[in-house]
Amino acid sequence: MAAVVTVPTNKLPKIQPPKLTYEDFDYNELLVYGGIDTFVTYELFKELFPKVAEQPTYLVPAPGGRISRMAAPSVLQEHLQVKQNALMFMIELKVNGLLYDQELHAVYEEDMKARLASLQGRIFTAVGEEFNLDSAQECERILYTKMGLTTTILTKGGGLSTSGDALKELFKTYKLGWLKDMAEYGDISGIYGNFIKDYVSKYVKKDGRLHPNYNLHGTSSHRISGDRPNLLNIPVPKHGYNIRRLYKVPEGHAFLTFDFSSCEVKVLAALCKDKKMLESILQGLDFHSYTAGLMYNVPYEELVEAVDNEDHPNHKLYKGYRKNAKSVTFGLLYGSSVGGVAMNIGCSNEDAQKIIDAYFNVYPDIKKFIDDAHDKAKLNYWVFSEFKQRKMEFGLMPMYERSAVYNASLRNAQNNLIQGPASTLGLVAFAKFSEEVQRIGGRVVCTVYDSLELEIPIENLAEAIEIGYQCLDDFPLQKFDWLDFKIGCDCEVGYNWGQLRKATRGVSQVECERLLELSTHEH
Questions:
Q1: Which of 39, 43, 152, 251 qualifies as a FRET site for 260, CA 20 to 30 Å off?
Q2: Closest CA to 260 of 424, 415, 385, 97
Q3: How far apart are CA 273 and CA 112, in angstroms?
């Protein structure tokens, strides 16, 4: 007789209850549920509507140290102006989805597996033992303990780095082929883990499309966020793997993408009205090179020529100037501290402050705009943007003074007044584009930061491109009185996201079809 084994109840596998859907309930019960749901929603509406329609008093610094009062916009105004149409746009994105190339995915998957195995074998043979290449701790042991190498690149904690940059620096120093193999392994392994392994089973639906989630309230800066999958960090082509090629359109359609050009910088210029900043934008100059030239007293043409030419005697110096200017600009846009700017540039906090001071000497109205944002935030503990979007800053309450929280809240306030309108401007223009392009059979399939991706019937491609320029170039200028110039945008066409050709305004249908043909060739 077989022995009876008693399994403790706490060791038994948990049985998951079946997931119920509306089809599992009686129809009459659903009617009652729907009625109660509507009643409760209406009761909440009666209670909350006066609050969302309220225009609270907002304090504004006035000349002579006085303070004036104004009626701030209501939450309802922002909803009607932005959120209502944006929500419909995001629903369209979700429902439409993005077609995925499962055949190319399978090719990439098999090739990556073989390549990773080959790299792994070569590395193990070279160092004389097997180890976990996906473990930073194990790689550090091999590189710096067993092999006795050294690097100048450190981790945030001050340890010796095993990052791709560190491996590339080590290869330049020691000329050991297996170091190059380790860097390549890390690159491919990261791409494989994030965009190939289990990607189809997780995200591709029965219709062969990805249908990402888009969240209208996912960030405090009013920028929409996305997940399942997150399409914000698709890598650039590397080691022969162009991941963007996996996102495509059906036969008879073209992949069309529009991207705002330096939207946040231009929104800042439109808001602060700094004459020199506006001058660079209206002339179509490279803003970071223009800024660097003013900061370091170098003629614009000379600086651009040196930055673009590696053989120029001042290439490294002027490229550093441009990096400094760019770091300060984006530090201001994203609310970085002096320490953050210093880390990005690679200098001391004192030197970073000197660079920031030089920047404000060039653009005094940016400094005035930021100081004004800080003053309003201190008075009210919140700010609102040109699109009437609020951002609470409770870290500015007296209890937090002279703390990191207080300083961060000041930077967040300025960030909200710049990044918030830039994000929302794109959202409003994209929603308009989506609405207009549907009448010619086009549909939106994805948005990433300041770009919008669409699939368009090939025979209507030229018309769709003109609609895009109207919605992104012309429409915002007509609709928003605080905007004095076109933001500017770039347009590209192809059959997939990874092989695109630039299309300018006024392109003909014949030229569009030629661009599609050219897009099939890597360049």
A1: 251
A2: 424
A3: 51
